[in-house]
Design brief:
The protein is an alpha+beta fold. It is 24% helix and 23% strand. The protein is globular.
Length: 252
């Protein structure tokens, strides 16, 4: 049975495609992708036609009112979808190959565009127009315990769960526009591998909200926009907690 070589296989794969070989894969990377497809079957989820999702875009359009002057209105349908000929780079798609990013809740969709307090956001409601088959890794947790260091003692199932936890985390972690876009390469390769295997998209957890998750659909025509609203951001919420290994400094 095909399986991952190690609980840390994702890290090895990511380093290779980011820093060593990007387009001509090594045998180690090919083995990882083979295990990826083999283990994706247990994470396959069917989405029926008519299922609704949300997508947000910062900003809005305007229209002229004879009494109030220019008033805001939601973006038109064509603005709420990525342009097929001018797709920007994302965590799932390379530049020039569009992908439709949606979310299972409006709060999740809103958080993914990272608006500022008081900003206006257009939120569209999208409905799938055909049955879809996606890989859902949103339930996989990245391992944090030091016990994972003893990888040679892990079972095949434990290695698989750990690797998919790292994959989910890689899809979820945001990359700002000023950051190194090479960090998108591993998830782009994974997405293209799943697309080649016949899947319609991939679902992953949001790093910003606990409820809901994100879905990237490989075909931007797989869902149609049926409604759009404009929202004003009225509150931003952050929480924090201490993590291990604190450092203390003495005052001189």
């Amino acid at each position: 049975m095909i399986s991952f070589a190690s609980w840390n296989s994702y890290s090895t794969f990511a380093r290779c495609v980011m820093r060593e070989r990007r387009y001509i894969h090594s045998e180690e990377v090919l083995a990882f992708l083979e295990a990826l497809v083999a283990t994706s079957a247990s994470r396959m989820v069917s989405i029926p036609a008519g299922k609704g999702f949300f997508r947000a875009q910062r900003g809005c359009a305007e229209e002229e009112d004879q009494y109030a002057g220019k008033v805001p209105k939601p973006y038109p349908p064509e603005r709420m979808k990525p342009r097929a000929d001018q797709a920007s780079e994302g965590r799932v798609n390379p530049k020039g190959i569009p992908c439709l990013y949606v979310a299972t809740s409006p709060e999740t969709a809103l958080s993914e565009v990272r608006p500022w307090l008081g900003s206006i956001v257009s939120i569209g409601y999208f409905v799938t127009n055909r049955p879809l088959k996606i890989v859902d890794c949103s339930g996989d947790e990245r391992p944090f315990s030091l016990g994972w260091m003893f990888g040679d003692k892990l079972s095949r199932e434990e290695k698989e769960k750990a690797v998919w936890g790292f994959i989910n985390n890689a899809f979820s972690v945001p990359v700002a526009s000023e950051d190194d876009r090479a960090h998108y390469v591993p998830t782009q390769v994974i997405a293209e591998c799943l697309k080649t295997a016949g899947y319609d998209g991939v679902a992953y957890r949001s790093s910003f909200v606990d409820e809901g998750h994100n879905i990237a659909l490989f075909d931007i025509t797989a869902a149609d926009i049926t409604a759009c609203e404009i929202h004003e951001v009225t509150k931003l919420r952050y929480s924090h907690k201490p993590i291990d290994n604190p450092r203390y400094y003495s005052l001189i």
